[in-house]
Specification:
alpha/beta
Length: 256
């Protein structure tokens, strides 16, 4: 009896350990892919009443969901400030970052990037009566950017002073309220803000703003996850899915 009881106790302990490791079918880190994002960047990621992943909607969210689906994984999204995303990734709080993030050489020092899935450029949002026609015209103007975004880097590189905000909506509000002269931000997102706010327009200057490539970030050396992500991205690029998503979500974002 003692031997039988001992065996039962061992079996129970093993079952409990197995249940703990697999979360008893509830979705452990092994079968849930957690993406970090900053849902303040339409049409790539933004909050909606009926998003593609819970309340999260946009191009990036649709890409993230397809990556998870094609690998038989559940998906979770953590919304945080843009500047916190790579820190959270390195700390293991999230598995990957998809947030309209430009794959820069500086960021490549700490993370690995996927195959780029979108090429964008920076533009200037100004009031319709503005005399700003080129980036050089910003020299004596009050400039607003979003903290951590490429627009901030571009303005820094030009040597101009600026004010940085946590959200694009806050920067654009400064412009509409006449408290600044120009907002530098991604072209697709600029379309959304101009459609939402009367009296604004977009000014482009290709000679001042180079194109940039958005990619998904994973921890350094996580080749297993990177391979899975790249396989889906390359498939979506080849069959035109990402182009279709870009059109769909840009139209939806600007129509809201």
């Amino acid at each position: 009896m003692k031997k039988a009881n001992k065996l039962l106790v061992m079996a129970a302990a093993m079952a409990l350990a197995a249940c703990t490791l697999t979360a008893c079918g509830g979705g452990s880190k092994g079968d849930t892919l957690t993406f970090g994002t900053n849902a303040e960047f339409p049409p790539f990621e933004y909050i909606a009443s009926d998003g593609v992943v819970g309340e999260f909607n946009g191009i990036d969210m649709a890409i993230a969901k397809q990556i998870a689906d094609e690998n038989g994984m559940a998906i979770a999204v953590e919304n945080m400030e843009f500047d916190s995303l790579l820190i959270a990734l390195q700390n293991g709080q999230i598995d990957a970052v998809i947030a309209g993030m430009t794959a820069t050489d500086e960021r490549r020092e700490t993370v690995d990037f996927s195959t780029p899935y979108y090429t964008a450029t920076q533009v200037m949002i100004v009031r319709e009566d503005s005399d700003i026609a080129t980036a050089a015209d910003m020299a004596d103007k009050k400039i607003c950017v979003v903290q951590g975004y490429t627009g901030e880097v571009c303005v820094q590189d030009m040597g101009y002073s600026y004010e940085a905000f946590k959200k694009g909506t806050e920067a654009v509000m400064e412009l509409t309220n006449g408290k600044c002269d120009v907002v530098v931000i991604d072209s697709a997102t600029a379309q959304k803000y101009v459609s939402d706010n009367e009296g604004l327009k977009i000014v482009e200057d290709p000679s001042a703003f180079e194109s940039e490539e958005y990619a998904i970030a994973v921890q350094k050396g996580n080749t297993e996850l990177l391979d899975k992500i790249n396989k889906t991205i390359e498939k979506m690029l080849a069959d035109g899915t990402i182009n279709e998503l870009a059109v769909k979500y840009t139209e939806e974002a600007t129509a809201e």
